[in-house]
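Working notes for the structural subgroup meeting. M.R. asked for a predicted model of this chain before we commit to crystallization trials. I am recording the input and output together here so anyone reviewing the notebook later can reproduce the run.

Input as submitted:
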Amino acid sequence: MPLINWNKPRREHDPVSHAEDNVFDGGPPGAYVPNMDDGDKYSWKGKMVGMRSGNPHVEIRYYPFVIIVSLGGGYRYTFYKPDKTKGINIHIGTSGAIQLSFEKWEQFKEVVEEAKEALREWHDQHDIMS
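Returned structure, recorded in token form:
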């Protein structure tokens, strides 16, 4: 049974008030508070991105972190350019401590496998070598 939910997340707040209420002055670079309701925030939310740039990758969000899964062709994420990420398969960004139960750790591994399979399918459909 797939763990990744590919549907667009439901917003908890309107975007303007969310941005105003979640300012990270002096906080770590790349820190964010997702504008998702709790049902989506604490589920494996996946999104395929980077297709137009030729650097497809999957972003998976599970509060408080984001996982980027790439087949190694590079990806764009905030301050990173594809030439700096070429050959990187998994990038984990966090705005807090990563704390997982053994059950969530097993799900984490399954989610990464699901993301890899989605990328392989995309590459196969577009006749791109990974």
